[in-house]
Amino acid sequence: MIIKDGTAPVSVRWVGGDDGHLELLDQTRLPGEVVWVECRDVPTVIEAIRSLRVRGAPAIGVAGGYGVVLAAAAARQRNLAPREARDHFLAAAEAIAAARPTAVNLRWAVERVLREVGLSSPPEAASVTPADLIGPLLRAAREIHAEDRRLCSAIGRFGADLLPEGDVLTHCNTGALATGGDGTALAVITTAWSDGRRFRVWADETRPLFQGARLTAWELVQRGIPVTVLCDSAAGHLLATGRIGCCIVGADRITAGGDTANKIGTYGLAVLAAAHGVPFYVAAPSSTFDLSIVDGTEIPIEHRGAAEITSPWGTSIAPPEAEAFNPAFDVTPARLIRGIITERGVIAPVTPDEVARVLGGG
Ligand code: MRU
Fold first, then answer.
1. How does DSSP assign 70-133, residue by residue?
2. What CATH architecture applies to the domain 155-359?
3. What's the CATH number of domain 12-149, 3.40.50.2300, 3.40.50.10860, 1.20.120.420, 1.10.645.10?
4. Is the CB of 44 under 6 A from ligand 1?
């Protein structure tokens, strides 16, 4: 373990200036090993996003923004004519945006850095080449990163102020590892703890990739916050004991109506929380909202390979003839969510009008 001073771990960093590179804390190796992946080209960034070396909606957005800088550097290296260089660069940026489909932050960040250099929509200035853009792209990517730190702090503050008494149950990992700052749902928990509130955090292990057991428990241990890991299937039994004051989770995409995609198992947890009268909160920055859709059924759900289910960590646990169902995310309908904590305030009740009001659109 590296961090024992109570500060949050860093998961994404840009090393150097315009000719620098991206480094990602390899989350597939945690908590056993602390290994940084050096990304000097776009394929390495895409591989890291797809294999969850970097993961969590805001963190893949931050990594995607820096990935666009590497795409421009690669286009420069190829010594192409300006038009070809730009086409090559934009194709690489699109490949980054499409690396994982559910978390909207990834495409949002790629489009934002492109927009900030005037490349989101034609016509583009014919004289502008990717080489000219590296500096401005890096500034835009750094701004997304810095902004995410600020958003996490604001979410932590708003959430800590409404966290009810009692223990807290969470799902997946929503901490510093999953963001450019202190986290979303986990920032609510750590801010409340810093305020002097005392409780235990119950972390669903989060099958099949164990983000709760491996990453959330690791982050909380670093910060000295008591944590108990449970099988996802033990959540109903735990809620029935009455000791959980609230459930709080993150999000990968939230519609204009408040329907929320998050790690598989979140929907089941929300149903269980409703059955036991336990408030269920979502914490997410405005960059996780996709206001182009209202209904959660329109959110694209990533389906991952069978081996994650049938052979966790390479150990076969099912007959080879068995098929696997492996959606990485599910959608929790707005009606099951007590409030959505954003950096702009808390959306409660979770209705289209309230989403628009808090996000400033209505
Ligand atoms: O597949 P993952 O690990 O990237 O899924 C992450 C989640 O579902 C998180 O809860 C979500 O991205 C919010 S992170 C602040």
1. HHHHHHHHTT--HHHHHHHHHHHHHHHHTSSSS-HHHHHHHHHHHHHTT-SSSPPPTT--HHHH
2. 3-Layer(aba) Sandwich (3.40)
3. 1.20.120.420
4. no
